[in-house]
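[job 0412] stage=complex_fold ligand=zinc ion status=START
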Amino acid sequence: MGKNHTSTRRGKSLLAAFREQCAREDAPCWLCPRPIDYDAPSDDYRNDDRFQRDHFYPVSTHPHLEEDWDNFRPSHAKCNRDRSNKPPRPAIGNRSQAWV
Ligand SMILES: [Zn+2]
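[job 0412] stage=complex_fold status=DONE, emitting structure tokens
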């Protein structure tokens, strides 16, 4: 909580565009594959099913990918929170070595 990675204007519009695209495609959470509640506002903090942008490579370890569209993933607020900076559960092959 309290972390705001999206500090630039470009970052904010990228985030808005990403959310819009995910909502249009009704993209499921990439962590648990259940549908996301795109109708929930992003400040609906009690709604664990609300949309949150996650990063495939965590910003803490890959800050240069923070605003890289290809690094964005749609997730539930709860799944994003539970994951924190850990690698995702699904098998992703050799790439997991990058986190060790
Ligand atoms: Zn989820």
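The first strand starts at residue 51 and ends at 55.
[job 0412] exit 0
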